[in-house]
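User: Here's a chain of 52 residues. Predict its fold as tokens.
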Amino acid sequence: MPAGDNSTPPKRQYPPFYEKAVPIALAIIVVIIVVLLLIIFSVAVGLFPNGG
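Assistant: Prediction complete.
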């Protein structure tokens, strides 16, 4: 690489759809994980005695 080469890589440009969809999808995934953890915890504690 030449010593005088100060070029920076081009900035990534994402479509506006991804700018909105990715945070929403991540939030939905986090909510699902939290709900599943609550269900697992409640089953382990015994809040569902007739569950099987």
